[in-house]
Please model this.
Amino acid sequence: MSRRGHGKVTVLAGGVGAARLLRGLAPLVPRGQLTIVVNTADDDVFYGLHVSPDIDTVLYTLAGLSDPVRGWGLAGDTFHGLEALRRYEHDAWFQLGDRDVATHLFRTRLLRDGIPLSQVTALQARGLGVGARVLPMSDDAVRTIVETTGGRRSFQEYLVRDRARETVRSLTYAGSRGAQPAPGVLAAIEEASLIVIAPSNPLVSIAPILAVPGLRQGLRRAEAPVVAVSPLIGGRPVKGPADKMMRALGVAPTPSGLADFYHDVLDAMVIDTADRAHLAKLEGRGVAATCLDTLMRSLGRSTAVARAALALGATVREQRNLAS
Ligand code: GDP
Ligand code: CA
Model:
C-alpha cells in the first residue's frame, strides 16, 4: 500500500463520463499506480482510419487537450479536412478534427503493420505525456452491434448518424467470445487495491469490457473492492442515451437498477444526491453507498467525486479487515 493509502487503482472506462472522473482521480493516485482499462467496442473505421473514440477521449483528457464543450476531440481543433472530404463523400457524418486525424493516421498505420492496439495506445500515451497506464480492454476487435426497430446498426451509426433516435431491441458485443484481454488487464485487476467502474454508459461502455472472457471472473475474484460511480443523476444521464437504452433492455435507470446490472462484481456505489432515496436500498442489499453532487462540470467537482470513490473503497477495505 502506498504512502497515501490507496495502493494500485484500476478503472474500467468508457469515454466522456469516465474522462470526467479521471481528470479528478489521476492527480490523486501516485505515478505508476493508476491503470485504466478502456472500452474499444465502439471503435470503427472511418474514411480508412481506425478510430478508438473512448481511448482518444481518455488520452486527450488526461493530457489536458480535450475539448471541454464537445467532450470529444481536441480543444481548438478545426474541421477543414472533413469539409474538403465532403466534396467526394457527401454524407461524411462522422466528424474528425484536423489535428485529431494525426492520432488516427498513426494508429491505423501501426495496426496495419501488425502492432497490437495496446502497444499503439502506449506509444500515444507517451507522445501525449500521459502518465497513467491506458490499456484497451482487448487487442482483438469487439464491436457493439445495436439491433433497433429500424434494423441493425453499428454503434456509431446508432449514436452519431441516427442520433440515438431509434428504439433499441438488443445489443451484442460481436467478437467478444473469442477476444482476449489485452496484456496487463487481468494483472491490473488482480493486483489492484481498488477497482473503480467509471460513470460510463453501463450497456455500451462497461458491459463490453465485462464481456471480454476472463474480465468478469477477474473482477469477482479480485481482492480489491469494486466501486461504481453512477452515471445517472435523478435517474437521467448527464448526456447520451443511457436511460433510454437501460429502459429498453429492462434495466431500471436508477442506482438500484445499476446495482442489479453489476450485481456479481459490485461492492459499493457512489451516487448523486438527487438519488439519495436509493442509499438505504443499496445498503440493504450489501452494497456500501455514499452520495454527493456528482455533476463534474469543473476540475473541483471531478476531484470531489474521485475522492468519494477512493474513500468509499477504503471504507469497504477497513470493514473487510475488521470482519476477518
Ligand atoms: P461515451 O463513451 O463518450 O459515451 O462516454 P461514457 O460511456 O464514459 O459516458 C457516458 C455517461 O457519462 C452518460 O451516461 C452520462 O450520464 C455520464 N456522465 C457524463 N458526465 C457526467 C458527470 O459529470 N457526472 C456523472 N455522474 N455522470 C456523467
Ligand atoms: Ca464510447
About this structure: The chain is about 40% helix and 20% strand. Residues 14-15, 42, 53-54, 205 surround calcium ion (ligand 2) (CB under 6 Å). The radius of gyration is 19 Å. The longest helix spans residues 299-323.
